[in-house]
Write a structure and sequence with these properties.
It contains five helices and 13 strands. It is α+β, with helices and mostly antiparallel strands and 251 residues long. Helix 4 runs antiparallel to helix 5. The termini are far apart.
């Protein structure tokens, strides 16, 4: 299948007011018919499920029109996603979840539930950065990041999960030139100290692999592990092998 050059917009007849639900979304328009397979279907758009489901052609157009108003085909640029939100309610207020706050601050402003096929869920939370052509998808297996870098045409694909470490998300965004806004106020570390991912910090607490590990405080360790898993705190390993903790500025 050649990369589709046109998209059609589907506006469901029965709209929903649920948060982050797109009022309309786009699917590829395939004038020569929907193929049985699509080996070149981009990973950021799920997995091609077969004909007449995640694409529209003259044969299946009447079926799509039974549940949605379908627009005329519109030409799109070559790097346009196969499936994307068209009419998304503008988020109001500060995102309550740290991950959403990080993504919105990094330019992922088009955020909506979309019917990406092949990800075990009928809908997937998709965050697009239209200016950069980057995408983040949140599903039961974790967070997939499809990121572009301003100095390279290659697209970077990373999966973080199933438990999502916001420190790893920040690192991936920064590495590919997606600074958050406002910039994260990471704690200043002394020479020789390093910021840990939540997984590394939890592992060190669990095995006692730090300076205070020979005299563990079970209640404190459990509280720290819960806070690290929730993304509420950050952990750093000091030069003397002590663990230090600070509130996560994105929590």
């Amino acid at each position: 299948m050649h990369p589709p050059t046109h998209r059609v917009t589907l506006r469901p007849h029965t709209p929903t007011s649920a948060p982050y639900t797109a009022r309309a979304f786009a699917l590829p328009w395939l004038p020569d018919g929907c193929p049985t397979s699509a080996p070149n279907w981009p990973d950021r758009d799920g997995h091609y499920p077969g004909p007449h489901t995640a694409s529209v052609c003259p044969t299946c157009l009447p079926d799509h029109q039974r549940h949605a108003t379908v627009s005329d085909p519109q030409r799109v640029t070559a790097d346009t996603p196969m499936i994307y939100a068209v009419d998304v309610p503008t988020p109001t207020g500060r995102a309550k979840h740290p991950l959403l706050a990080i993504l919105r601050g990094a330019g992922f402003t088009r955020l909506a539930w979309l019917p990406l096929p092949g990800l075990d869920n009928p809908r997937v939370l998709v965050a697009d950065n239209p200016a950069r052509g980057s995408r983040a998808t949140l599903h039961p297996l974790g967070l997939d990041l499809h990121l572009t870098h301003p100095d390279s045409p290659a697209r970077v694909h990373l999966r973080i999960g199933p438990r999502i470490d916001t420190t790893a998300v920040l690192d991936a965004l920064h590495t590919t030139g997606h600074p958050t806004h406002p910039a994260p106020s990471a704690p200043a570390l002394p020479p020789g100290a390093r910021l840990l991912t939540a997984d590394d910090a939890i592992h060190m607490i669990t095995i006692g692999g730090h300076a205070g590990g020979h005299q563990p405080d079970l209640a404190l360790d459990v509280a720290l592990i819960d806070a690290l898993r929730a993304g509420q705190i950050l952990a750093a390993l000091m030069p003397d092998d002590r663990l230090a903790f600070t509130p996560n500025p994105h929590a």
